[in-house]
Amino acid sequence: MNKKTKVTLGVLLIAAAIVFLMITAFGSSSMYYLTVDEALAKGGEITGRPVRLNGGIQRGSVTFDIQQPLLVFNLTSETGSLIKVAYRGVKPDNMAQATQAIVEGKLRQDGTFEATKLMLSCPSKYEGKTYEGDQGSR
């Protein structure tokens, strides 16, 4: 083999390795981002696949078993649809104030969403108060 052929093969091998690593990295981190209604509409299509869900936390549905530890609550949509979420791990301190949640995990066959990651959104304590006669900007 001459020098030019060796260099060409080396460059092709490195390029193939880079493409393989990029495909592997993007493939493992890709996941659907869905609302509760979208997830319910897709149903079996997303069962067992990595999914990220966004929805409201239904008041009164939150239970926590400290022995397991297992946090269970319902995620709701704007139309009132529900998905039961089960999260194994420590209960977040701000769970009582949370109004929205983003969960990552997989939808099980029984319709329960098994979350591996839980991110909460709470009402902002930094929003300005509205006073009588306040016109907003001055």
Write the layout of secondary structure elements.
Elements: H1 3-29, E1 32-35, H2 36-42, E2 50-57, E3 63-65, E4 70-76, E5 82-88, E6 100-107, E7 113-121
Parallel strand pairs: 1-2, 5-7
Antiparallel strand pairs: 2-4, 2-6, 3-4, 4-5, 6-7
What would your notes on this structure say?
- The structure is a single chain.
- By secondary structure, the chain is α+β, with helices and mostly antiparallel strands.
- The chain folds into two domains: 1-30; 31-121, Nucleic acid-binding proteins (OB fold (Dihydrolipoamide Acetyltransferase, E2P)), CATH 2.40.50.
- It is built from two helices and seven strands, in the order H-E-H-E-E-E-E-E-E.
- It has a five-stranded mixed beta barrel with strand order 2-4-5-7-6.
- The longest helix is centred in the first third of the chain and has 27 residues, at 3-29.
- The termini are far apart.
- The model has no long low-confidence stretch (mean pLDDT 85).
Task: Quickly count the helices.
Answer: 2
Distance N to C terminus: 79 Å
CATH topology of the largest domain: OB fold (Dihydrolipoamide Acetyltransferase, E2P)
Q: Can you identify the CATH class of the largest domain?
A: Mainly Beta
Structural class: alpha+beta
CATH architecture of the largest domain: Beta Barrel
Give the domain tally: 2
Our estimate of the beta-strand percent is 25-35%
CA-atom Rg in angstroms: 23 Å
Helix content: 10-25%
Oligomer: single chain
Integer average pLDDT: 85
Largest sheet: 5 strands, mixed, barrel
Main β-sheet, spatial strand arrangement: 2-4-5-7-6
Q: In total, how many beta strands?
A: 7
Order of helices and strands: HEHEEEEEE
Shape call: elongated
Tell me the CATH superfamily of the largest domain. Answer: Nucleic acid-binding proteins
Low-confidence stretches: none
